[in-house]
Design brief:
324 residues; alpha/beta; UDP N-Acetylglucosamine Acyltransferase, domain 1; elongated; Spore Coat Polysaccharide Biosynthesis Protein SpsA, Chain A; 9-stranded mixed sheet
Length: 324
């Protein structure tokens, strides 16, 4: 089985962080969100990782090859025309079964039943309180019979979360061909839900597998929420002699912390330097410098510098901010 990850998106909702890095490499709880995703799928022992890249894709290729000793393929999506436009580009490379996932959210899922299932497609879903905000799967007799985008009338509470198992990728490619021929798109973008709906109409067995946890990382607010969730599971960081670290928090062993209070829910990256400051409910990326500041509910990019008074900020890589 291959694991396919379309990662070509611009990540506009996470700007300014994504001006200088692709969204999967934005850090959360001590490491890039892509690393958390791979932690959850490598137990499947895939034959290969397949990345469909675009904007700043060279950074993803470099990071993966430096950090993982597993066969990996990188295919470029040169024009942003949606999910299935990305997937069709691996047609000649991925010919058997595959797990496709969009690594812009964190999840807890049990993939152990994949091999025993007779389904053509397994769509991973999560019960949500407000189905009108999501793509929704309608289930009858243990099969998904219809996909509805943001229904205004209740049809189901099973939200589609962007993780799919296909027993035969050629079946998906055939459905994508029909999707293109019929022009089934929205604002000139082609979505995987439309291709799967065509598979349903062709009689393919599509089933739902509910997962217990799913955390979006699409904007700074949800990124910080996911940071809080993940920090609850991490080991206690090494104490610092002249500073206080309030749990749960992550502080890299390579970070410098002087006369400061860190946490709760703070994530401090490698080589970050925190001096005479209070940092809580925030993500501070590698090589950032915070001096004499009190920040909360903030995201501080790689190499950014922040000095001064209390504030909630979201500053990109290499920024310089003086709060007076």
């Amino acid at each position: 089985m291959d694991i396919v990850m379309p990662v070509a998106g611009l990540g506009t909702r996470l700007r300014p962080q994504t001006w200088s890095k692709p969204k999967p490499l934005v850090p959360v709880a001590g490491k890039p969100m892509l690393a958390h995703v791979l932690d959850r799928v490598l137990a499947l022992e895939p034959e290969r990782l397949v990345f469909i890249t675009g904007y700043l894709g060279d950074q993803i290729e470099q990071w993966v090859t430096q950090n993982y000793d597993i066969p990996s393929l990188f295919v470029e999506q040169t024009e942003m025309r949606g999910q299935t436009d990305a997937i069709i580009r691996i047609r000649e490379s991925v010919r058997d079964d595959a797990l496709i996932l969009f690594p812009d959210a964190l999840f807890e899922a049990d993939f152990s039943g994949i091999g025993a299932s007779d389904a053509d497609v397994i769509m991973y879903t999560k019960v949500v309180e407000d189905p009108s905000a999501y793509g929704i799967a309608v289930v009858e007799d243990d099969r998904i019979v219809k996909l509805v985008e943001k229904p205004q009338v209740f049809v189901s509470a099973l939200a589609v979360i962007g993780i799919y198992y296909f027993r035969s990728m050629p079946d998906l490619y055939d459905a994508i061909d029909e999707q293109f021929e019929r022009g089934l798109s929205l604002k000139n973008e082609y979505f995987i839900a439309d291709a799967i709906q065509l598979m349903i109409e062709r009689g393919k067995k599509v089933v739902s597998s509910e997962i217990p946890e799913w955390r979006d990382c699409g904007n700074d607010e949800t990124l910080l929420d996911t940071n809080r969730y993940l920090l609850e599971t991490l080991q206690v960081p090494t104490p610092r002699s002249d500073s206080v670290i309030i749990q749960p928090s992550f502080v890299s062993d390579l970070a410098v912390v002087e006369r400061s209070v860190i946490g709760p829910h703070a994530s401090i990256g490698p080589r970050a330097h925190i001096r005479d400051s209070i940092v809580n409910d925030s993500i501070v990326d590698e090589d950032a410098f915070i001096d004499g500041a009190n920040i909360s509910s903030s995201v501080v990019g790689r190499g950014a510098q922040v000095r001064g008074r209390p504030a909630a900020i979201n500053v990109s890589d290499m920024s310089k901010v003086a709060l007076s």
